[in-house]
């Protein structure tokens, strides 16, 4: 029985992975058109122009948005579609691909990722949790991890670096940030209960990983209606260097310096701290973070 023809917007970040995988977007478009779908290909020279094109195309009427790129493209899609009835699909070709990794999508094999997409859009979409962040008068959605502390500072430093390209850039940024970093005095309100503490970092996870595979919350589930609050207590520089490698394997969760808590809402306050969500700049603290169960439809 033939599948229905869908109106599909395909938003492509041609600069994902520093442009090394420019072929992925056109291959996705060609595969969808070969099956008879009505495809609108969207690509621009920067993310703000692309976002406007996506918004205009959605307003014109589509059945599905496909994003081709890394976690930045996932963030674009999530912020357009969370809380709506329009589903999102992902073809990963970025540097980190943390959300795609959490969904179990093929990360390196383009043909396998396209086959996965073509199969996924024939099935009913899956409802997963999305997370709403309020910062001042603004709101942002994310589906992976919000960072506010050492890891956010590393992210900000890595984003300013042009080299090295790839995951090693994050590691180098971490070592440079470590040279001057000090514990931060936070006020954290978890499910309405306030608490003052000093910590190296605080992250609020919906997905398991960040930073290209750092398993900060290895037991996080994207459709359980809960967040995993990740806190690293004050450590020496050497102590933090010892903890961080364990995060890549997820073996850090039982360390005495690490605290993991399940919750539904978190307010984070702290001086001079910039929050990032899914690797994208959110803004300075304070932020209010609330999980919204089933707020995003995903074809995966």
Tell the overall outline. Answer: globular
Order of helices and strands: EHEHEHEHHEEEHHEEEEHEEEEE
Structural class determined from secondary elements: alpha+beta
Task: Return residue spans where pLDDT drops below 50 for at least 5 consecutive residues.
Answer: none
Major beta sheet, specifics? 10 strands, mixed
Number of strands: 16
Distance between the termini: 21 Å
Rg over CA atoms, rounded to whole Å, is: 19 Å
What does this structure look like?
The protein has 300 residues and is of the alpha+beta class. Helix content is 29%, strand content 34%. The chain has 8 helices and 16 strands. It has helices at residues 24-34, 47-60, 71-81, 98-103, 110-120, 150-160, 168-178, 237-249; strands at residues 7-12, 38-43, 64-69, 88-92, 126-135, 138-142, 145-149, 184-190, 193-199, 201-205, 227-232, 258-263, 265-269, 274-277, 280-284, 287-299. The strands form 2 sheets. Strands 1, 2, 3, 4, 5, 6, 8, 9, 13 and 16 form a 10-stranded mixed beta sheet that branches. Helix 6 (150-160) crosses helix 7 (168-178). The radius of gyration is 19 Å and the shape is globular.
